[in-house]
Amino acid sequence: MKLLEGKVALITGASKGIGRAIAQRFAEQGATVAFTYLSSVEKGQALEDELKALGVQAKGYRSNAADFAAADELVNAVVADFGRLDVLVNNAGITRDNLLMRMTEQMWDEVINTNLKSCFNTVKAATRTFMKQKSGSIINITSVVGLKGNAGQANYSASKAGIIGFTKYRCP
């Protein structure tokens, strides 16, 4: 038996990079994989096909976790499609690097909303399901930059530090 056989995992921001690798690894371990992408339908479809070729159920959802209502709709859709949700991996993230004196409010807001607010949105949406099931795991992807910032990354550092603080929360 594989480690995640019978489990349903939702991974945000999985069409490339770290999220894609997480989705592949979860599928290799037998999980049903639901994942989100935002910008590239082609990359989302390619990942879905790749995961299904590993012999698991997989489905990509075009969704913006930074949008509160969209995150709730996403979790509801995953539960409707697969009957449950066992693992939430908050991986969606972006950078908009620039020195603070040149950083726009839009650059700040985009990073905070995508990296930090999306964690709140999806965790809040999944909590109801996890409590009803009396089980569920949440993995929030952060960065060492959240502990010690980098030049030109005030927004990214703040978002990742916020995730570190948010992750200390425990559901009742």
Key descriptive features of the protein:
single chain; 172 residues; alpha/beta; Rossmann fold; 5-stranded parallel beta sheet; 5 helices; 5 strands
Give an overview in words.
This protein has one domain: Rossmann fold (3-Layer(aba) Sandwich). The mean pLDDT is 95. Strand 4, helix 4 and strand 5 form a beta-alpha-beta unit. The chain has a 5-stranded parallel sheet with strand order 3-2-1-4-5, sandwiched between helices. It contains 5 helices and 5 strands, in the order βαβαβαβαβα. It has 172 residues and is of the alpha/beta class. The protein starts with 7 loop residues before the first strand and ends in a 5-residue tail after the last helix.
Structure at a glance:
It holds the Pfam family adh_short. With 172 residues, the protein is an alpha/beta fold.
Uncertain stretches of 5 or more adjacent residues: none
Kindly identify the CATH topology: Rossmann fold
* Oligomer kind: single chain
Mean pLDDT: 95
Please state the CA-atom Rg, rounded to the nearest Å.
16 Å
**In total, how many domains does the architecture comprise?**
1
Structural class of the secondary elements? alpha/beta
Helix content: 40-55%
How is the biggest beta sheet arranged?
A: 5 strands, parallel
Helix-strand sequence:
EHEHEHEHEH
Write down how many β-strands occur, each being a DSSP E stretch of 2 or more residues. Answer: 5
Keywords: Oxidoreductase
Pfam families: adh_short
EC number: 1.1.1.100
Organism: Cesiribacter andamanensis AMV16
Question: What's the helix and strand layout?
Answer:
Blueprint: E1 8-11, H1 17-28, E2 32-37, H2 41-53, E3 58-62, H3 68-82, E4 87-90, H4 105-133, E5 137-140, H5 154-167
Helix pairs in contact: 1-2, 3-4, 4-5
